[in-house]
Amino acid sequence: MAASAAKDLNIGAKAPSFALNADSGGKVSLSGLKGKTVVLYFYPKDDTSGCTAEAIAFTKDAKAFATAGAVVIGVSKDSVASHDKFKAKHRLAVTLVTDEDIKVAEAYGVWVEKSMYGRRYMGIERATFLIDEKGVIRHIWRKVKVPGHSTDVLAAVKAL
Description:
Blueprint: H1 3-7, E1 19-22, E2 27-29, E3 37-42, H2 49-60, H3 62-67, E4 70-76, H4 80-90, E5 95-98, H5 103-107, E6 111-116, E7 119-124, E8 127-131, E9 137-141, H6 149-159
Parallel strand pairs: 3-4, 4-5
Antiparallel strand pairs: 1-2, 1-5, 3-8, 6-7, 8-9
């Protein structure tokens, strides 16, 4: 998907398809999740403070998401081996998938220019997409602030 098309990704749009390698050697695809509500959250890097706090919050709410019929999937460009270590270290109960070639991040419009200490670089913007059982985007959170985010997403899932 072209970058311009990703910028047009809005609520009500068909979610871009993906098939990615997951932690523990599995594979996850949007087509394989048809019929389920999907919380697809993009995060910059395994085992950094904000990303760890976000993954722990989604893990804390994992049973509530499952009860509401939602699958939570975290996406970063880290390797499967990195995801496995991250999950084990923090006892995470969410599926983590690797987007090493950043094609999915680009399709969802979250591969963006960032700036830190005056240095500009490309990276994954923290963002979450709520995708319904038909593959339609029902809610988008961009530039996510971690505190309270999992609770907000869970409320949106329950409201579907």
